[in-house]
Predict the 3D structure of the following.
Amino acid sequence: MSDNGQGSLLAQPLRPPSAGRAVAYVGLFLLGAVVALAGALVQAAWFPGGLLLALAGAAGAFLGGSYATGGRAGAVAPAAGWIVAVVLLTATRPEGDFLFGAGGSSYLFLLGGMALAVICATLGAARQPRGGSARLAK
């Protein structure tokens, strides 16, 4: 039990996020989409360095969102935007144009970005219980 008598965080009822937090999540979703678009262009232009730069940008957006919001949902929002943008960019247009080629670099970008999204959402900053800075088992 915590000091405020409300029990574990897992036992608390779910509440919708505040308006400011919701705006932050939407902004992070859009940031993830922009990072995906920039990464799609950079990874193909400068192969070894561009791929690493694109994946580092994606990891920075995912992990930075987690630390900025103080919770794992901050990493999920840009990851969701990144995945939606990448899926839309891989679809061919009626004219036959597409942004991703069939090379190994594109697959490394897609799979590496998804792996980074899962890693950052799992290992990102977790919400800590409110209260004093004393140990919980006191």
User: Anything to note?
Assistant: The radius of gyration is 19 Å. The chain has a mean pLDDT of 81. The first helix runs from residue 19 to 45.
